[in-house]
Amino acid sequence: MARRALKLVSLAAATSGFYLYSSKYLDPNDFGVVRVGRAIATTAVITYDYLTALRSVPYGSQEYAYVKSQIKELFVSFEDTPLGAASLAQVHKAVLQDGRTVAVKVQHPKVQAQSSKDILLMEILLLTVKQIFPDFEFMWLVDEAKKNLPLELDFLNEGKNAEKVAHMLKDFDFLKIPRIYWELSTRRVLLMEFLEGGQVNDRAYMERNCIDVNEISRNLGKLYSEMIFVNGFVHCDPHPGNVLVRKCPATGKAHIVLLDHGLYQVLTQKFRLDYCRLWQSLIKADMKRVQKYSRRLGAGDLYPLFACMLTARSWDSVNRGIDRSPVTASEDVEIRTNAATYLPQINQLLNNVPRQMLLLLKTNDLLRGIESALRTRASASSFLNMSRCCIRAVSTYQRSKSHSLYKKAQISLLEALSLWQINLYELFLRLKGTRLGNWVIAFLSRMHHSLY
């Protein structure tokens, strides 16, 4: 239910991209630009942004050929075949004159001019659907597209986001974010440090390269928990093409490489703290607080459905505790089977929650897809990492609002005790099933019986 429904949240970007492709497909010349990525077209885009000379130069003329040839002053080599292509841009590998290997992200021609037309077309189509089906309440998709697409089209904004998140998460030594080469970047062309690796959902690649799948899953959970709960600055497009893994030849450590920083969600403090407390309640199976904070986030009487959408679990599993009951095949079948039944309620819910929630739902869905591919879905470690971040976030807020040194010390002590309890529980889970763990459990059990 949740997985299929949450994919609707990404419709704004996907629909816009679809029309970008569709309009180009109808023009054979543009089709070559977008789908095939011919070297001439790509070179033209780069040359325009660097030299600002092609707009007034007739295509195919000697002057055009001269201006295009100036690209050689920038690169020793430039690979014609893109490493990856999407509706807005494509990425090429190149080598600069000073020997640096770079990734060159090039925006497709006409995207800037076409984007407003695509959004207008999407708005007309959605209005038409609403006329036919009055209960259709997805007009917010247009608002999200109007807000997010211009940001994604500004590559300088993407570079700033990359630098901001790199600084924000600098203590995570497993995270690698490409360095931006500002002197060679523009709004339509972004030059970055070239980093490569396997896609994060490629379990076979990790096994071939002796990368611990569980470690990658844990670190990905740490990364996104820190962004969502602690910093409120969230990378919202973690599809496998944007999250790579590699093993560092020098240290042997596994790295996560985070790419494509065009789309971020900035969470308000109130929203972030309510979201923290909601997840704490879900992990503890505290249904009263689940209801309270779901309502505060706009779910109203649909809070059970909201909890199921956030966790991708059945209501029965939410009540038992999502960290206590593993995901089963029968539960997945149950959720998929009931999806159509709840579509009107999901529609209503998505229309009522804060706009900040929409990209988070999409992000959650993409992360669960990665966990499912790695077969690490809903592991206890992911919930423990979320709990740590929620505790730290709430404690930091409480300290900021307190003017008493005694009260601040009390908050810090409670925070330390809560984090210590989580560490102890994590140690217990790791020992569970081992000979030492069985001995400890048996010893504690005997101690318990002797006391009572």
What do you see in this structure?
The protein has helices spanning 2-6, 11-25, 28-36, 39-51, 62-69, 111-132, 140-153, 155-168, 203-208, 213-231, 269-284, 287-296, 303-311, 315-320, 329-337, 343-352, 355-374, 380-401, 405-431, 435-451, and strands at 75-78, 84-85, 89-96, 101-107, 175-176, 189-193, 198-199, 233-235, 243-247, 254-258, 264-266. It is globular. A hairpin with a 4-residue loop joins strand 3 and strand 4 (101-107). The strands form 3 sheets. Strands 1, 2, 3, 4 and 6 form a 5-stranded antiparallel sheet that branches. It has a 4-stranded mixed sheet with strand order 5-10-9-7, covered by helices on one side. It has a two-stranded antiparallel sheet with strand order 8-11. It is 60% helix and 10% strand. The chain has 452 residues and is α+β, with helices and mostly antiparallel strands.
Give a short summary of the structure.
The chain has 452 residues and is of the alpha+beta class.
| Uncertain segments | 1-57
Ends apart, CA distance between termini: 47 Å
Oligomeric state of the chains?
A: single chain
Largest sheet: 5 strands, antiparallel
Specify the overall morphology.
globular
Q: Output the radius of gyration.
A: 25 Å
Helix and strand arrangement:
Elements: H1 2-6, H2 11-25, H3 28-36, H4 39-51, H5 62-69, E1 75-78, E2 84-85, E3 89-96, E4 101-107, H6 111-132, H7 140-153, H8 155-168, E5 175-176, E6 189-193, E7 198-199, H9 203-208, H10 213-231, E8 233-235, E9 243-247, E10 254-258, E11 264-266, H11 269-284, H12 287-296, H13 303-311, H14 315-320, H15 329-337, H16 343-352, H17 355-374, H18 380-401, H19 405-431, H20 435-451
Parallel strand pairs: 5-10
Antiparallel strand pairs: 1-3, 2-3, 3-4, 4-6, 7-9, 8-11, 9-10
